[in-house]
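Lab notebook: predicted structure, single chain.

Context: the supervisor wants predicted structures on file for every construct in the current expression panel, including those that have not yet been purified. This is the next one on the list. No modifications to the sequence; it matches the entry in the shared construct table.
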Amino acid sequence: MANFSRPLIADGSALSWVLSVKRAFPRDVRGVSSQCTRVGPEVVIWLTNIACVFLATHYLFEMNKKGLFYGYDGQSFRTLAGVRFDLSNVLLGLGSDFVNGLGNVFAPPNPRWFPSLLLTWSKVKGINDPLSYAIGATELFVATALAGRLLGFALPVCVAAGWFLTLWTWPLYVAPKIVTLWLFTPTHAEVLSVSVLLVVTSLFAGLTGMRRSALLFLLVFLGTTHIVLGHPTSSILIAPTIAVAAVVSFVHAADRTQRVTVITGWVVILALYIFAGHAQFLYGLLSYTSGNVFPELSQRPQTLFGGETTLLLWTPVTHFSLVHILTPERIFVGGGIVACCCVWLFGAPAQRRLAECVLVAQTLFLALGFSNYAFAFWSGPAMWYFELMLFPYFSLAMCFAAVLLATSPLRFAGFAFPQVPWDRVARLVGTAVAVVMPLAIAAHAFVVGPAVREEAESYPGYAMARPAPQPETAITRVLKSETRLAAGEPFRGRVANFLGRFPQARENRISADMISWFAEMATGNFHDGPGLWQDNIPTFVEYHRLLSPARFVFSRYFFFDETSGGWKPELRLLRALGVRFIITDLPIEGLPLRAEVEVDTPPSAHALWALKPAFERFQLYLYELDNVNLGQYSPTEFRRGTDASSMLAFLADDRVDPASSVIVVELPEGSFTKAHLDMFRVERDGYRVRAKSQGSSALLLPVEFSRCLRIASRIPAAPPRLIRANLLLTMVVFERELDADITFRTGPFGASSCRSEDAADMRAIRLRNAFDLRPNLRPDPSRALGLR
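Prediction complete. Output recorded below exactly as produced.
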């Protein structure tokens, strides 16, 4: 009988595994031996597979460039990562977003924690897309295969599982077989890679000796710290499976000592999370969002399909046939569940613990998904995101079951012909498969590469895809020249988009988002979001799920058009927010026109959205505003606001001039004189501001206020202070002379509670009731607009 209870972690350190393959690997997995007499053969197999997966994926990604960083989300991800390399050095947490909005927190991930971005970015060319994706795919392959070996699965099973996951979940062959949009960015694969190893480690932590358990718990803390620092919001996705793994390890403890070790280890980890600020950071990051204050914005829809409930119901069964029933999603998730049951029945002890962990986690996800379908209470990620975190385990389980089934004849042959060394035959066959399979897949990839490229060129969905960077137009040329941000250069204003306003668009209910797509498909540039961020052009639009509640309320109250459901320009307040340029498709009287672009609506645009050709072309206009707040607004009149509703009512009065009057929660003492701004410039992770006055003065900066902002004076004078003004903006109060640096950081190790303080400020001014005077503006879950 084979000994399945001696996987890597249970036997010793990773070094001992490398040096002693015999002790690290189990003898067989129910019929297929993975025992090697020397380290050499397995090392060769590993190196062969890793080389093949990297070369094959890099080549196919090169052939399918249009499928990389696909769509608005993908292009936004790519450009904003480049902006962060340009303008930020924050490593331990998150800094301020200079271009995506008014200076709110930068949306995860922090690219410096991910090799797929850190190793492929250059200041001249940006991120190398194929290389970035190949690194992410290779990491996930290695993590899946290594997790299998740690659990004692045979090497051929681990190799097959890694390849199965790679071939089914990446856009290698034009489009992925499974609609795993979460894997359309390589950093998500890297998060999943870390998650897989954390779950496997959690299954062993506490069940080995005290020293080894201490080391494993330390690895869990370091791995979760990597997620918290690199992609903190993904902690929501990885936490459930790790928690289930911890419970499973406790249940399988052999004695009281092991149970105490498991409990003690996790208590220590939780204490470290609090001591280092992990818990406070995550709480603040998730609590100070528009979706938290107004949960109706992100409440999940009540639907069985589309992954909201489960990937098993990704699509409805319109015809009772194998093609419609056995979709890729159902094969992967449903097959994975069945295969996990097989692992639980026939696997080794460590493998059975994994099967229990996966089955329990999947049961929880199904229960949550179906209960939300019945009661509509969940406002977090869709259930299919949680199920995606189980894909590597499903892959391992299905390959285990497949090998178990395929080697069944060898068992019967062993009874019929006991003199034949079937164990050696199985070992040789397994080794051959583990070597031949990657070589065959790599050879196939290089053979079909030209066909993949040809198909990508003709794939209808890629009509929206464009290479990066997006080409320059007459409008973006002006903006790049006059608003581009660079460290050490003055802030020169930002850009606001008001699209979908011309008569034909309104008559046909063409949204602003679709107008941007029409412009991108005709000119190659969105004239919005990633089309501008790629050149470090700051925009009024803010596109991510960490949109602050103050920004959401301010934008919806003053710029949301109740009649059309689109956006409207409110020039007086746009000037105060630092908006210098407006891109619109409807002429605006009284503003100087700086540039315009004629957009011929391509037939493919109407075909893609099944629209009737309502207009053949439209114009994009670039207008410039005067007297824009570039940091020089110096208010001298202050009014105290007790709540958000009164603040908004004050600002809505057309007689209020934001350059001289502001509303604050706490009135500054004394009388104020107007200051003269000498400099307001962008620096890495913040700003430098310099001004003079004859007494007490204030500057209203076009930057969103947060408790995460810190100000440090460069002169030995009375220290300046930062105050929230006009609900949204940052005001600097100083005496006579100001020369200070303003920086932003939130994260563990010293800046973990500032977002929680922001959330407390919003509760104090009753932001939830901000629309009491205009109840028709209260968020409606049926409307998507208002989130930006």
